[in-house]
């Protein structure tokens, strides 16, 4: 006789009570419920890790700050996306907005600022970049016209250039007046005290 047969013969005379069988079934169901809850919790934790990890990876890939902002673009207040990337002591920004006619416009800039106390260069802050974006701007249209835009103001300056291609205009918002010296398609200077030559 083999060991297996001996075990069968020895335990064949034992019988479990009905109460014990029901208790085993209850424990099995309870274990299944606990197991399902643990699997659900594990799945929720895994989802949080995946979402959190992908958000961190997204931010790490960009290496910058991204904000939805409102700016004045060609006299209209417009929603835009601003990306700020800081490298060392320099901040670079890109602002992307869609004009009312559906064209997408991108503006780039950046630089450094000097710390008041130490005179060391530091990246521009978001507030300083927004101040710059709210300054007057000059656009040259496809039809050859030149325009100055400042908040909700639009001023055509096409006929204001002298023979040297220089135009001087003032724009005002609140208590701030900008004196602009514009060089036709060569840039411009502005000052809050006087025209810059």
Secondary structural class: alpha+beta
The averaged pLDDT comes out at 76
Radius of gyration: 35 Å
Q: Which descriptor suits the 3D outline?
A: elongated
Output the strand order for the largest sheet. 1-2-3-4-5
User: In whole angstroms, how far apart are the ends?
Assistant: 115 Å
What's the number of helices?
A: 3
Sheet-strand content, in percent, reads 35-45%
Helical coverage, percent range? 25-40%
Task: List segments where confidence is low: pLDDT < 50 over at least 5 consecutive residues.
Answer: 54-62
How many independent structural domains?
Answer: 3
How many DSSP-defined strands?
11
Give helix and strand order, one letter per element, not per position. Answer: HHEEEEEHEEEEEE
Major sheet: 5 strands, antiparallel
Structure description:
Helix content is 31%, strand content 40%. It is an alpha+beta fold and 197 residues long. It has three domains: 16-62; 64-134; 135-197, no CATH class. A hairpin with a 2-residue loop joins strand 2 (76-87) and strand 3. The longest helix has 45 residues, at 18-62. The protein starts with a helix and ends in a 6-residue tail after the last strand. The model is unreliable at 54-62 (pLDDT under 50).
């Amino acid at each position: 006789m083999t060991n297996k047969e001996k075990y069968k013969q020895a335990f064949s005379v034992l019988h479990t009570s009905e109460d014990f069988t029901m208790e085993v079934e209850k424990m099995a169901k309870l274990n299944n419920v606990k197991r399902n809850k643990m699997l659900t919790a594990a799945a929720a934790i895994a989802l949080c890790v995946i979402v959190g990890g992908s958000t961190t990876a997204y931010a790490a890939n960009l290496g910058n700050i991204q904000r939805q902002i409102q700016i004045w673009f060609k006299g209209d207040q417009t929603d835009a996306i601003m990306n700020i990337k800081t490298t060392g002591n320099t901040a670079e920004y890109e602002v992307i907005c869609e004009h009312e006619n559906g064209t997408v416009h991108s503006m780039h800039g950046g630089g450094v600022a000097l710390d008041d106390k130490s005179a060391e260069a530091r990246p521009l802050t978001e507030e300083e970049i927004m101040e710059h974006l709210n300054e007057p701007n000059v656009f040259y249209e496809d039809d050859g016209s030149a325009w100055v835009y400042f908040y909700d103001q639009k001023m055509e300056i096409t006929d204001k250039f002298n023979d040297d291609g220089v135009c001087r205009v003032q724009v005002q918002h609140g208590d701030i007046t900008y004196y602009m010296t514009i060089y036709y398609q060569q840039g411009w200077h502005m000052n809050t005290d006087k025209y810059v030559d």
